[in-house]
Write a structure and sequence with these properties.
Length: 89
């Protein structure tokens, strides 16, 4: 999944959970049933999970360009330089 796909997934998850929560509260209040409210919200969580967890093809519209391995060998990794510590006297 690419970065843009992760952004879309995050937005979809938030939208679906908020909508299912609002619908669950309204229906639960109208029917005066806590059980109905929880079932509707649980259905929204399951729906959000089915939409966001699998790596669907429309989440991969902007693939990342990785560095070719042969090109990576031409440019060695930078070395960590040890910093000098100054002692207090």
């Amino acid at each position: 999944m690419d970065w843009q796909g992760q952004k879309v997934v995050e937005q979809l998850m938030q939208i679906l959970l908020v909508i299912s929560g609002v619908v669950a509260v309204v229906v639960g209040y109208a029917t005066e049933s806590f059980r109905t409210m929880m079932l509707i919200y649980a259905g929204g969580v399951v729906l959000a999970t089915l939409v966001t967890v699998p790596n669907w093809p429309f989440y991969n519209r902007h693939p990342l360009e990785w560095l070719d391995p042969s090109e990576a060998e031409k440019h060695p990794k930078p070395q960590v330089v040890a910093k000098k510590r100054f002692s207090k006297k």
